[in-house]
């Protein structure tokens, strides 16, 4: 090895492997009493020196488990090293090679269950590298410095793709196809693109200008959006198929799992998606929302009970706190260690004043307008086929939890698309998701693909991004080397 190369490696190593001398640190988090008052993001931004310091804690291990446990297989050790060396533009360029929306994943990915949760130095007791915060910092810095370049294909292609659904999977696919010069039209039922990133995830986790910035980039890059367009009503699925060379189904899953319990139809018992959408419209976009203004979907001054233990439930309890609820309680039928939601989100919620009632399940509801939740206390029994302990009712341990607003956050299921759209030959699984290949994302219909939650079931934004990128690659393989056409 030459002397110059050895010297370069030595200098690089001086910036890394600091996990034994530098403690894990996160960007400053606003005090709970301040963040309860608004919907702004709760974490600040790293300063350049702090980002470099924290990135320098990476051990640059030979087998990067952070990368292998990331659904996108992001080149995490490489952009951490570049950040530690102050080479931020290069760090961004490496980051965006595998991730269409790194600034979004840096904010909302459950890093504690993915990259950070599998960090080698975390396993050795030194505290994981703050991968998500550095990822967010890199891309925010790239936007500030104009390093995020507009989408400008080197040549236009004649192929056209229709994408149904403007969520993360559909937008990731649109981004990749436009960079190849493919003509892309995105159809979505809502008045703004972004799917759950826009209307489902609250602003304190993902401020909406971050999402809108990417949508503006796609529009500027030539993606056509047809919003307020409900497939099956405003346009048929066959019309979309006949208009385009390929179609991607990326609708997500919006059908709420329901409860079967006495009194479940009482006024004041609402769906999580309705509650969160109304809040996002009113708080983040300033829209007039009659159901919010009337109090139907507004927690202000109310005793709120949220049923569920996933990330959607965490979004609901923390939103209710910000709306000025009198009290907020979260009922979950298992204990803290067995809940599906992010433990970091649970901690944030507790700091903000949410009370968690573990090992509790709704048995029914009182009042024509809800006055209370009849609660059964639970215990964890024997494991089921998946290995999780099954909750069991403790007989004689029921009580009533007073409530003025009950929010059902029990998860989502797919809509019956073949019936809803009148499509013959579109095969679905026994769970109702669209049956598609998990590599090419091709469905049973020629030229029709599916990605994201409508294929895999309710999951994470990062998985939808991966699926959308893979679907775009499969389409390009089908299109082949068709001659380009002159841009209009």
Automatic annotation (TrEMBL):
<dbReference type="GO" id="GO:0004355">
    <property type="term" value="F:glutamate synthase (NADPH) activity"/>
</dbReference>
<keyword id="KW-0560">Oxidoreductase</keyword>
<dbReference type="GO" id="GO:0046872">
    <property type="term" value="F:metal ion binding"/>
</dbReference>
<protein>
    <submittedName>
        <fullName>Glutamate synthase [NADPH] small chain</fullName>
        <ecNumber>1.4.1.13</ecNumber>
    </submittedName>
</protein>
<dbReference type="InterPro" id="IPR023753">
    <property type="entry name" value="FAD/NAD-binding_dom"/>
</dbReference>
<feature type="domain" description="FAD/NAD(P)-binding">
    <location>
        <begin position="161"/>
        <end position="468"/>
    </location>
</feature>
<dbReference type="InterPro" id="IPR009051">
    <property type="entry name" value="Helical_ferredxn"/>
</dbReference>
<keyword id="KW-0479">Metal-binding</keyword>
<dbReference type="InterPro" id="IPR036188">
    <property type="entry name" value="FAD/NAD-bd_sf"/>
</dbReference>
<keyword id="KW-0408">Iron</keyword>
<feature type="domain" description="Dihydroprymidine dehydrogenase">
    <location>
        <begin position="35"/>
        <end position="146"/>
    </location>
</feature>
<keyword id="KW-0411">Iron-sulfur</keyword>
<dbReference type="Pfam" id="PF07992">
    <property type="entry name" value="Pyr_redox_2"/>
</dbReference>
<dbReference type="InterPro" id="IPR006006">
    <property type="entry name" value="GltD-like"/>
</dbReference>
<keyword id="KW-0004">4Fe-4S</keyword>
<dbReference type="Pfam" id="PF14691">
    <property type="entry name" value="Fer4_20"/>
</dbReference>
<dbReference type="GO" id="GO:0051539">
    <property type="term" value="F:4 iron, 4 sulfur cluster binding"/>
</dbReference>
<dbReference type="InterPro" id="IPR028261">
    <property type="entry name" value="DPD_II"/>
</dbReference>
């Amino acid at each position: 090895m030459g002397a110059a190369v050895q010297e370069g490696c030595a200098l690089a190593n001086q910036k890394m492997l600091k996990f034994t001398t530098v403690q894990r640190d996160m960007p400053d988090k606003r005090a709970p009493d301040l963040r309860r008052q608004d919907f702004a993001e709760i974490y600040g931004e790293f300063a350049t020196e702090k980002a470099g310091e924290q990135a320098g804690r990476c051990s640059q291990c030979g087998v990067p488990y952070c990368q292998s446990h990331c659904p996108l297989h992001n080149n995490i050790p490489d952009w951490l090293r570049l950040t530690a060396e102050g080479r931020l533009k290069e760090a961004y360029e490496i980051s965006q090679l595998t991730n269409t929306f790194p600034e979004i994943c840096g904010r909302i990915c459950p890093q504690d269950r993915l990259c950070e949760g599998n960090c080698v130095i975390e396993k050795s007791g030194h505290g994981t590298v703050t991968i998500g915060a550095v990822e967010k910092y890199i891309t925010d810095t790239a936007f500030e410095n104009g390093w995020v370049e507009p989408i400008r294909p080197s040549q236009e292609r004649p192929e056209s793709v229709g994408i149904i659904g403007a969520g993360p999977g559909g937008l990731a696919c649109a981004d990749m196809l436009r960079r190849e010069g493919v003509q892309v039209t995105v159809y979505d039922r809502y008045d703004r693109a972004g799917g759950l990133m826009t209307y489902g995830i609250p602003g304190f986790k993902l401020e909406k200008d971050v999402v809108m910035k990417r949508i503006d980039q796609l529009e500027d890059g030539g993606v056509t959006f047809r919003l307020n367009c409900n497939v099956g009503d405003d346009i048929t699925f066959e019309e979309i198929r006949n208009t385009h060379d390929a179609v991607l189904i990326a609708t997500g899953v919006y059908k709420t799992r329901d409860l079967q319990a006495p009194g479940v139809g009482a006024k004041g018992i609402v769906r999580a998606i309705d509650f969160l959408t109304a809040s996002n419209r009113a708080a983040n976009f300033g829209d007039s929302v009659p159901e919010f203004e009337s109090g139907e979907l507004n927690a202000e001054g109310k005793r709120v009970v949220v049923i569920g233990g996933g990330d959607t439930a965490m979004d609901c309890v923390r939103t209710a706190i910000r709306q000025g609820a009198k009290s907020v309680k979260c009922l979950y039928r298992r204990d803290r260690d067995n809940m599906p939601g992010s433990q970091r989100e649970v901690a944030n919620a507790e700091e903000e004043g949410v009370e968690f009632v573990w090992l509790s399940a709704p048995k029914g509801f009182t009042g024509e307008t809800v006055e209370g939740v009849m609660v059964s206390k639970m215990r964890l029994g024997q494991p089921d086929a998946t290995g999780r302990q099954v909750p069991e009712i403790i007989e004689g341990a029921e009580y009533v939890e007073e409530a003025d607003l009950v929010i059902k956050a029990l998860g989502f299921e797919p809509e019956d698309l073949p019936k809803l759209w009148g499509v013959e030959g579109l095969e679905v699984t026994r769970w109702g998701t669209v049956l598609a290949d998990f590599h090419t994302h091709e469905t049973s219909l020629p030229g029709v693909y599916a990605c994201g939650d409508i294929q895999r079931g309710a999951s994470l934004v990062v998985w939808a991004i991966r699926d959308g990128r893979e679907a775009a690659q499969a389409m390009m393989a089908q299109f082949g080397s068709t001659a380009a056409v002159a841009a209009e």
